[in-house]
Amino acid sequence: LDLGVLISGRGSNLQAILDAIAAGKLDARVRLVISNRAGAPGLDRAREAGVPTAVISHKDHPDRASFDAALVGALGQAGASWVVLAGFMRIVTSVLLDAFPARVLNIHPSLLPAFPGVSAQAQALAHGVRITGCTVHLVDAGTDTGPILAQAAVPVLPDDTEERLSERILAREHALLVHVLAAIAAGHLTVHPPTTVAARARV
Ligand code: GRF
User: Fold this and answer.
1) Are residues 109 and 123 in contact, defined by beta-carbon separation less than 8 angstroms?
2) Binding positions for N(1)-(5-phospho-beta-D-ribosyl)glycinamide (predicted)?
3) How far is the C-alpha of 137 from the C-alpha of 39, rounded, in Å?
């Protein structure tokens, strides 16, 4: 898999991908990491791994479509054929989705369709659910709404804080994202535009 990874901040999911590749557990290459924020710590993680980086700020573009066109241009030039949104805090448009049909993945820290959008872990605590988790899904035009590829459940403990719960979910995110990418790389999971998911084996 030739990956383009889009980030906005910490980049721990990016790190999980880089570590899995380095360990020979994921047959993929990260062709480019793009951040919409210049100071994103994830950019250092990419540089550390010798992966090309780019900063493309949404603030330098008049609208979402032209921002996405810049992303598509950079991703295409780098040779990416799959795109992973790994803590990328921007809503993407059909400009990106049409350039990579059924080839854009997102990782989200809840069991979708519960708790889409920001602060999913706080939403779970506020709602009092006993089980939450994380989801890897294909991205469509909505916010955290695309076809689900895989999920992992994480119990909410009685004395959980947002921070502790987020930490436990995050550990599962890293494993789940790598698991899905490895399944795609191995041909165990094939996805067809616009929304059909064909799993040859359960992932
Ligand atoms: C993760 O919780 C991810 O699910 C959400 O944003 C966070 C990104 O964390 N979309 P990181 O930048 O990968 O460390």
Assistant:
1) no
2) 11-13
3) 27
Ligand 1 pocket check: which of 173, 177, 178 to mutate, most ligand atoms within 8 Å of Cβ?
173
Question: Is the pTM for the entire model greater than 0.90?
Answer: yes
- Picking from 181, 183, 155, the residue whose alpha carbon sits closest to that of residue 169 is 155
- Residue 117 burial by CB count (10 A; 0-12/13-18/19+): exposed, middle or buried? exposed
Residue 141 covered by a domain: no
Domain span including residue 181: 107-135+150-203
- Is 192 among the catalytic positions? no
Structure tokens at 25: 């557990």
Q: Which residues line ligand 1 (CB under 6 A)?
A: 7, 9-13, 42, 86-87, 107-109, 170, 173
Prediction ipTM score: 0.97
116 & 162 share domain: yes
Residue ID of nearest Cα to ligand 1 atom 12: 11
> How close is the Cα of 196 to the center of ligand 1, in Å?
25
CATH number at residue 126: 3.40.50.170
Q: Does 119 lie in the same domain as 79?
A: no
Shared domain for 57 and 27, answered yes or no, is yes
Say how many residues make up the chain. 203
175 CA from centroid of ligand 1 (Å) = 13
pLDDT digits (tens, 9 = 90+) for 156-185: 999 999 999 999 999 999 999 999 999 999
Which one is catalytic: 108, 137, 174, 179? 108
